[in-house]
Amino acid sequence: MVLGAVGDALGFPIEAGVVEKVNGFVSWSLNGELIKEGEYSDDTQLTLSTARSVWNGRFHPEYFAYVELPLWVYYQRGAGQSTRKAAMNLFSLRIQWNENFYMGYEKAGGSGGVMRIYPLVVKIKDEAALIEDVFKNVMITHGHPLAFVGAYLFVVALKSKRNLDEIAFSFCNIIEGLESSLKSLPEISRWLKGRGDSFFPELRREALHIKELLIKSSEVSSYSEYCKVVGEKDHPGSGRGVSLCAVYLYLNFRSRDAIFKAANERGTDTDTIASLVGNLFGKSEDLLDLSEKVQDSMYILELSEEEGKERLVNRSEVRKWASDYEKGVRKGKVPRFHPVFGELEMIESRRKRRFFKTEEGQTILL
């Protein structure tokens, strides 16, 4: 996850359109707010949220949906529209994680699901459980098949040995078995009734397109050109585009070249693609200088390696904290406690928000 954060931090200012090119970490400003060298965006924040939602070898959607996501709204940086809508929707006690149908949900096929599933692949050892839990993680926020096929392509690429044929074969195998293995599960069956039974046929059509674009990658010699081929230049940030672009770079370049090409390709979802590339490589001596300097590097490393601990779900506590925090902001009061992060230590003020060090070691801007 550390190299994922590196890619995220490199691509963040390019994606925001405020920097022309990066050769390393830079300080910059987003809407008047200072972002220091090596600080990451929502991609890494949501990856860490997912990692905290895994214990005893399984992803726990109730905790992720009812605790992590709603509270993430208050410290998010550069969040996508769909994930933000989904998170806000979950403040309502009437909304269940497998029926989080906000306005535009069925059209939400962006990168928000793909960007955060790396911890599932690392922490969930049982293959059937992994396939199920990836689906559950994505469906909490996204309803379009593009979000799902992009996530599963990323899963098989993470498990491959940088071999195109192996990735294509494994991807097709997973997609072919999804409906039979998941449709009868009570939580997903309920979701399908709300989402619509046309989902799996749509999914297979999108998967076939991805397979064609994946095979075509061997015929395209330029990364910039491949971004156009897969539609990432026309519609940046789709689940299909970011996963295909990341896989292309993973297969064709060394880690440092790949992550900087991803970060510097303007007109694409640079922070997400560079983050995916970093996670695909996992570890790299070529990027050691950056992995040691990225925001919260030690915390991210520990979270990626340690066994997850069981965490409580209390939706009422989440709602109360949010209400108290908003009242406190109006009165200029600094929060001292957080339902996820525990005790908060204020480090510095940044315009209207403040940087806090959490009990576990993550830094957040509230």
Structure description:
- The protein has 366 residues and is of the alpha+beta class.
- It has a single domain (2-313), classed as ADP-ribosylglycohydrolase fold.
- 55% of the residues lie in helices and 8% in strands.
- It has 17 helices and 8 strands.
- It has helices at 2-15, 42-52, 61-72, 81-89, 118-123, 127-139, 145-159, 164-182, 186-195, 199-216, 223-229, 239-252, 255-264, 270-281, 288-291, 297-305, 315-331, and strands at residues 28-30, 33-35, 54-55, 58-59, 337-338, 342-350, 353-358, 363-365.
- The strands form 3 sheets. The protein has a 4-stranded antiparallel sheet with strand order 5-6-7-8, with no helix packed on it. Strands 1-2 form a two-stranded antiparallel ribbon. A two-stranded antiparallel ribbon has the order 3-4.
- Strand 6 (342-350) and strand 7 form a beta hairpin.
- It is globular and about 60 Å long.
